Amino acid sequence: MLEELKLSVYEANMELPRRGLITYTWGNVSGIDREKGLFVIKPSGVDYDKLKPEDMVVMDLDGNQVEGELNPSSDTATHLELYRAFDKIGGIVHTHSPMATSWAQAGRALPCYGTTHADYFYGEIPCARNLTQEEIDEGYEKNTGTVIIETFQGLDPMHVPAVLCKNHGPFTWGTDAANAVHNAVVLEEIAKMNLMTELLNPAVKPAPQSMQDKHFMRKHGPDAYYGQKK
Amino acid sequence: MLEELKLSVYEANMELPRRGLITYTWGNVSGIDREKGLFVIKPSGVDYDKLKPEDMVVMDLDGNQVEGELNPSSDTATHLELYRAFDKIGGIVHTHSPMATSWAQAGRALPCYGTTHADYFYGEIPCARNLTQEEIDEGYEKNTGTVIIETFQGLDPMHVPAVLCKNHGPFTWGTDAANAVHNAVVLEEIAKMNLMTELLNPAVKPAPQSMQDKHFMRKHGPDAYYGQKK
Amino acid sequence: MLEELKLSVYEANMELPRRGLITYTWGNVSGIDREKGLFVIKPSGVDYDKLKPEDMVVMDLDGNQVEGELNPSSDTATHLELYRAFDKIGGIVHTHSPMATSWAQAGRALPCYGTTHADYFYGEIPCARNLTQEEIDEGYEKNTGTVIIETFQGLDPMHVPAVLCKNHGPFTWGTDAANAVHNAVVLEEIAKMNLMTELLNPAVKPAPQSMQDKHFMRKHGPDAYYGQKK
Amino acid sequence: MLEELKLSVYEANMELPRRGLITYTWGNVSGIDREKGLFVIKPSGVDYDKLKPEDMVVMDLDGNQVEGELNPSSDTATHLELYRAFDKIGGIVHTHSPMATSWAQAGRALPCYGTTHADYFYGEIPCARNLTQEEIDEGYEKNTGTVIIETFQGLDPMHVPAVLCKNHGPFTWGTDAANAVHNAVVLEEIAKMNLMTELLNPAVKPAPQSMQDKHFMRKHGPDAYYGQKK
Q1: Which of B140, C157, C217, D96 would be D26's cystine partner, CB 3.0–4.6 Å?
Q2: Which residues does UniProt assign to the signal peptide (chains A, B, C, D) (predicted)?
Q3: Alpha helices (H) in chain C, listed in sequence order
Q4: For C69-87, what is each residue's pLDDT tens digit?
């Protein structure tokens, strides 16, 4: 069942260590089949070098495990909340990639300091608040998703396909699992560059809005002209 | 004698250069057989690419070399003290891994700024004080252990399986040699992230206690649910 | 047509990921045949591991695509402006290499702090200003070139073969495509070292002019004596 | 002539890119045969991947090229001065390794913040002053050596086998070419760690003298006990 999706989610998971975003098992990728209402996610705590496509776990949008013998990622409830609330996203990634996690630990949104950021993210990448004790006790992973959704009130998740969870780390998403991983790689790169930028100029301001508009739109707007015609 | 333990200690040593924690011969791993009261440790100053399982040295808990033609690690007396004082640990690692060593050189305990830390270490990782001139003269390596033990008064070494020795570098431990290396890798990663975190937010505070409890307990508590059932 | 130039521009493009200057497709290299008045440039948004020499696009100096089925790099109009204004340059590179881009995001010229810099760049590497809204609307990529040219009034582009575009990233150039890539590698290295230098000494001053003269001239002056006779 | 020395100097040169100390041709290693009064050095500006043992150039201690068809390193006169003044050194290395060069650019001596440093260098690693205009004009490379020698008045070059040349980069030396490269690797590692240390604790003080004595002496003193008996 969903063999093609499992394979693409497996491949997207394997891209994380190749891109240097992962230490040990600290991350997970999922992808969704919107028509069937099912998503596929990495099993919990399995080493990347032992992972196989058939290990992927199939979940429905009520949180039931539909297929797979292994436990799904411990963050599955977060993925579920995001798929339910953000209806255009097709894949989700969570990592503890070091530079993005450092911003999350610092409790800071990632400002847009340049075109590398604006080519992918339209405006700053927000930092979601800590969960309350009650939210942790009631359902830590589910409420991690709830707080992300709260953070995106008034924001288009397809315009800003990433969030930093305070004292935790980043989640990214995208049109599918591979695209969500792509955004995780970009996030890590700009998180690194933006720290260096602030060290070089503590008074630095975000890039001019005109420049942010131009770069986001030339790649993602209705008249996008970056890349090849499809 | 102890062929299986020698092989696992050899493998754990070889993991150090693979994980980028080691320059030249700056590190050593040991593992203990608690029933026999013997531990196995890397020989001193041997290049990792020439190291063989049979080079591992066997020591008893009185500090006698029981087997092996090479000198044991110059830090053997430190390992011995820790095995005697911390009766649940099964393996010990010492490295000069650059980020953890930088915290040790700065003389600072490593605060818990996020879940990456809390998944492995319950609370801050302490920095042990310098040895006095007398302690150095009397037995430098033995007293390095003594000062670590002093530092852990009131702390459970299995809850905080690492220490930073001031102006020196880290020791980590774990259930066995491989697990101690795992903790050394995690320590290096959080030491890097926590420096970046402070550069991004000099006024940063530790992660909320509720979050530290949640993450440590979901992996190590009686109701742990991370990973696969064993 | 221009098979040799296409091959050398292809090779120069492929050197970018090998040297760690590129994430995904974030960069482009071109090279020019001054006699024919044609330049060859990477196509837009094509993965480096799928790129082939025959994919290179041939442009004339009026901005017409003379050969090639793929769209040229979205930055082609910038390359065009530079080839027209700087008549001694034979190759151009644009990247988002992280350290140089951090200086660009900080809006700062790169000072000459040492001989590594002075061996390649004579004096500081300037940071070009932001484009105005009007310049963006009128022709973003063309005017990126115009602003670089404005920045080099009074400067010899062969003495300072690089620029940082504010909130964007670096362009470098050179005698040909390979030499322009060489300069991009050097720029990234000195951008890294100069940040570290400032962290170590916030009051640091540029290297003495006498030293800058000596190093630039022993490699590039009329009596250069570095390397082998040619 | 001197085939064995040429081979060892060649091997030592090739170790520089393997250890990540070198970009392009920015470095050189030499080794001396004290009995014959001849030293062997890398040719100038030759790519490491084209270098062959037979390319090594043989020089005498009056600065005459005794063998080899290629020009010797442009820094040969510096090596010559050091071999003449420091009669126990058997090999010399110059690099622009990024972290050590950053300290040199900052014009700062490298303090001893820990045992990694004290295991190899006894006390701080000095930063040699800039050359005067006259010294540059009279003989830049020779006087680079003269100023290093001036810097070591009262210091034993075998106790501190490294120097930082202001606004330039490091030289290291050792018992032979391989040992000099070993010291260059260590220097780069402690240069990195010491910057991080200062970022973590701007008020950090050098390691206690008792600890520096202990670590230098257990490896290099008359009663050294690190490593295996020889």
Answers
A1: D96
A2: none
A3: 3-18, 76-85, 98-106, 115-118, 133-151, 177-200, 209-220
A4: 999 999 999 999 999 999 9
